[in-house]
Amino acid sequence: MIMVDASKHQLELDEKKKKGLDKQLEFLLGRTERKEGMIGIKKHSNQALDIESERIWKLAQAKKVEIRANQATRGEKRVKLELDEKKKKALDKQLGFFLGQTERNCYWQQTFRLSAARIGHW
């Protein structure tokens, strides 16, 4: 009878131990599921953040391209103005040359006419 009581007592202890382990297992499973859920939410929120970050990055890149285009346009305008200025200077120089030539020609024509008039050819 002592053996039966000891066996019965041992079975009760084993059953309590098993119930305790089952509770621990349920607790750990629940905790794991909650963690997985939080990880899923975090992944989803990270994906949303990644999408927003990518959108912001693309907007910044587009702004940089726009700024560079404006700078290039300003640079082209500046180069065009410099070329226009150089052309104007070259044309002014040519005009000065032609005016000088014309003045010299007129002077020589006048001188020639005066000389010819003195001599009596004109």
Helix content: over 70%
Q: How can the largest sheet be summarized?
A: none
Whole-angstrom Rg: 51 Å
Number of helices: 1
**Overall average pLDDT:** 78
Structural class label? mainly alpha
Number of strands: 0
Termini gap = 168 Å
Low-confidence stretches: none
Topology pattern, helix = H, strand = E:
H
Quaternary assembly: single chain
Which strand-content bin applies to the residues? under 5%
Give the overall shape: rod-shaped
Overview of this structure, please?
- The chain is mainly α and 122 residues long.
- The chain is built from 1 helix and no strands.
- It has one helix at 2-119.
Write the layout of secondary structure elements.
Layout: H1 2-119
In short:
With 122 residues, the protein is mostly helical.
Task: For this entry, give a set of tags.
mainly alpha, rod-shaped, single chain, 122 residues
